[in-house]
Design a protein that fits this description.
- It is a multi-pass membrane protein.
- Belongs to the CorA metal ion transporter (MIT) (TC 1.A.35) family.
- GO terms for molecular function: cobalt ion binding; cobalt ion transmembrane transporter activity; magnesium ion binding; magnesium ion transmembrane transporter activity.
- The chain is of the alpha+beta class.
- Helix content is 55%, strand content 13%.
- The chain has 2 domains: 264 residues, Beta Polymerase, domain 2 (2-Layer Sandwich), CATH 3.30.460.20; 40 residues.
- It has 8 helices and 7 strands; from the N terminus they run H-E-E-E-H-H-E-E-E-E-H-H-H-H-H.
- A hairpin with a 2-residue loop joins strand 4 and strand 5.
- The chain starts with a helix and ends with a helix.
């Protein structure tokens, strides 16, 4: 029976492969017209050879959660090995490189959740030749999805790098919205911090600072990479429109980076102000505690003295001895106050 199962396993598997013609990890694909720049959706059963077109170009978006994606990419002749490695690698940092006329890299995006809003940083990978751009992600991303919706609404894109530029532009819009949101949050924190009653707002400030620092780090790295391609003078060719795209995106993200840097400096100064106010309040409490200790120490010594229960204690035989001892304790408090006033502590 076992040998019989083995005889039928290979034919069944081969038949399944022939019938299952969907692109591994397929999320969506569009073919863009060379003249109008309009995108037309392609089905997941599109043959791999049809992804390389003579006129216009194709945008293929893949999910890296499918383990078959690396094997599928090996069959795309337009992509060199370095570009395939970029698409399937798991390193998360901003990268922009060019090999054999193919622009490829990793860029920042914002993860997209279906049931709540998130500001978590995500990553999308891309490789763009003249006729094909492949983008890939591990988790759903907000800006890539926004670009797809824009294409569905009629956004015209004439070069493969235009898809990448559209995603980065959507990212800049998200960053602008986050700048406004975090600026408003800093305004509210400042209002609380500078109230008469001091409040510790470091718990609210922490997430804002963390988001600002992370985004600003990615923006600075991205601007530096785009500046490099803006001055491209190497012999390796680039896809059409790359230099112009780099100039536009460098200016766009440079402005956002400056605003984000301003927020980062503002959040840092606000954190220092909170620390200063908390430190001042702590010192005030310690000062009050020290004064109370100074006032209570003399009467404590008086009560301790009269509590020794030894013979010959003053006022032991007096009818109003307790009252006299109480007055002596009060006199010691007045003496402590006079001394502190005299030396300038009060």
């Amino acid at each position: 029976m076992l040998s019989g199962k083995r005889r039928f396993a290979a034919p069944v598997w081969s038949a399944w492969l022939l019938l299952n013609t969907e692109i591994p990890g397929f999320v969506w694909a569009y073919r863009f017209d060379a003249v109008t720049g309009a995108g037309r959706p392609l089905p997941p059963t599109t043959p791999r050879d049809d992804l390389i077109v003579e006129e216009g170009f194709v945008w293929l978006h893949l999910a890296l959660s499918d383990a078959r994606v690396p094997k599928f990419l090996e069959g795309l002749a337009d992509l060199p090995d370095a570009a395939r490695a970029t698409l399937t690698d798991r390193d998360n940092h901003v990268v922009l490189a060019s090999d054999d006329g193919v622009l490829h890299g990793v860029f920042t995006d914002i993860e997209r959740a279906f049931d709540y809003e998130t500001n978590d940083i995500g990553w999308f990978r891309f490789a763009a030749s003249e006729r094909l751009i492949v983008t890939a992600r591990l988790h759903p991303l907000r800006c890539v999805e926004a670009t797809r919706l824009a294409v569905d609404r009629g956004l015209a894109i004439h070069e493969t790098v235009g898809v990448f530029a559209a995603v980065v532009t959507e990212f800049e819009k998200v960053v602008d919205a986050l700048i406004v949101e975090m600026s408003d949050e800093l305004d509210r924190i400042e209002d609380y911090v500078f109230e008469t009653a001091p409040r510790d707002e470091r718990r609210r400030l922490g997430p804002v600072r963390r988001t600002v620092v992370r985004l600003n780090r990615q923006l600075r790295a991205s601007v530096a990479l785009f500046r490099r391609y803006q001055r491209w003078d190497e012999p390796d060719p680039l896809p059409t429109g790359t230099v112009e795209m780099a100039e536009t995106l460098a200016d766009l993200l440079g402005s956002a980076s400056q605003e984000m840097q301003g927020l980062q400096d503002r959040a840092r100064l606000l954190h220092e102000e909170i620390d200063s106010k908390i430190s001042s309040e702590t010192n005030r409490h310690l000062y009050i505690l020290s004064i109370m200790t100074a006032f209570l120490l003399p009467p404590t010594l008086v009560t301790g003295f009269f509590g020794m229960n030894t013979g010959g204690l003053p006022f032991a035989g007096e009818h109003f001895g307790t009252l006299l001892a109480f007055l002596l304790g009060g006199l010691s408090v007045w003496g402590a106050w006079w001394f502190l006033k005299r030396v300038g502590i009060l």
